[in-house]
């Protein structure tokens, strides 16, 4: 089927990458709407980075059709590259330059860059402006990577495991930054192993196993999660109790009536995104 070129930020059909006999990406389909935040999930070695690097134009595909902002990424025209921001899994360049110098240097590659000082502040590195890149901690280095990804005001931002090594507060601050960018209309494709990150940030998630997209849904509905039975837990005279039900409100109302008031240690839960993801991965393994 012919791809309609400019309707989506990303459209890939039957995407393939083989290394010798190994099918790292094996006929993967992916559509990302403009303005959407899309998270790619999947176990180690599933093919997420290979997919993202083919979409960025850094790796040649072995097969399939791809359009990113209406362009075949393998062509990588200059004006297209300036519309895209990339945060790779790890970078180790420019060790001797200061944070400010690195960001200023990268700003020069773009026709309409953001102000370097503003970007440094947005990623929370203002106190480290004058420090050389090589003395930054792992999490600070990652923030610098993110700064370089957004300095060109990209329409589409690729983030490969962006918050690995972040402390909890830095992760929250990063999430705020991503929400800001998304609110400003930036399309974002990220890979992550943190299910809470996917749940908080993503409009939709896609699960990749063995080079194939096995599910695409909103975080709330992945794997039938939205309609899964609720688990009610409480403590009775003879110890902890639990019960699975499709009608938790009615079940809890009956419990309250039975107890004649408060039910000790009452909780009602649905499967977390992590529960759903893990059972999905086991099924397709
Ligand atoms: N240059 C390469 N040569 C040969 N095999 C490769 C190459 N790059 C990746 N692979 C293989 O392709 C598969 C997919 O790797 P990829 O890095 O895309 O996985 P991933 O889903 O990003 O994993 P992770 O979550 O660990 O980052 C793996 O089996 C990997 O060993």
UniProtKB/TrEMBL annotation:
Name the UniProt record assigns to this protein: ABC transporter
Similarity comment text for this entry: Belongs to the ABC transporter superfamily.
Location relative to the cell: Cell membrane
One cellular-component annotation, GO: plasma membrane
Domain (ABC transporter): residue spans on this chain: 10-235
GO molecular function: ATP binding; ATP hydrolysis activity
Pfam families in the record: ABC_tran (PF00005)
Classification via InterPro entries: AAA+_ATPase, ABC_transporter-like_ATP-bd, ABC_transporter-like_CS, ABC_transporter_ATP-binding, P-loop_NTPase
Keywords of the record: Antibiotic resistance, ATP-binding, Cell membrane, Membrane, Nucleotide-binding, Translocase, Transport
Database matches in SMART domains: AAA
Topology with respect to the bilayer: Peripheral membrane protein
Organism name: Dactylosporangium siamense
Main location, first listed in the record: membrane
Taxon lineage: Bacteria, Bacillati, Actinomycetota, Actinomycetes, Micromonosporales
One GO-annotated biological process of the protein: response to antibiotic
């Amino acid at each position: 089927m012919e791809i309609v070129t400019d309707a989506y930020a990303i459209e890939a059909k039957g995407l393939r990458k083989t290394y010798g006999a190994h099918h790292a990406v094996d006929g993967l389909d992916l559509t990302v709407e403009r303005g959407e935040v899309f998270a790619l999930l999947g176990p180690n070695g599933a093919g997420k980075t290979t997919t993202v690097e083919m979409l960025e134009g850094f790796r040649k595909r072995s097969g399939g059709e791809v359009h990113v902002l209406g362009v075949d990424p393998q062509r990588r025209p200059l004006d297209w590259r300036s519309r895209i921001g990339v945060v790779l899994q790890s970078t180790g360049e420019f060790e001797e330059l200061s944070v400010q110098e690195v960001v200023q240097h990268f700003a020069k590659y773009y026709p309409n860059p953001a102000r370097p000082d503003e970007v440094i502040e947005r990623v929370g590195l203002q106190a480290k402006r004058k420090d050389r890149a090589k003395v930054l901690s792992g999490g600070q280095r990652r923030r610098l990577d993110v700064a370089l990804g957004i300095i060109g005001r990209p329409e589409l931002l690729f983030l490969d495991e962006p918050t690995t090594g972040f402390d909890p507060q830095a992760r929250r601050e990063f999430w705020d930054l991503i929400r800001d960018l998304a609110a400003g209309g930036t399309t974002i494709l990220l890979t992550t192993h943190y299910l809470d990150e996917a749940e908080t940030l993503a409009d939709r998630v896609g699960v990749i196993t063995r080079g194939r997209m096995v599910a695409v849904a909103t975080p709330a509905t992945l794997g039938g999660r939205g309609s899964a039975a609720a688990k009610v837990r409480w403590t009775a005279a003879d110890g902890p109790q639990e019960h699975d039900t499709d009608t938790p409100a009615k079940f809890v109302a009956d419990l309250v009536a039975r107890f004649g008031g408060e039910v000790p240690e009452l909780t009602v839960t649905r499967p977390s995104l992590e529960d759903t993801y893990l059972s999905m991965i086991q099924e397709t393994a």
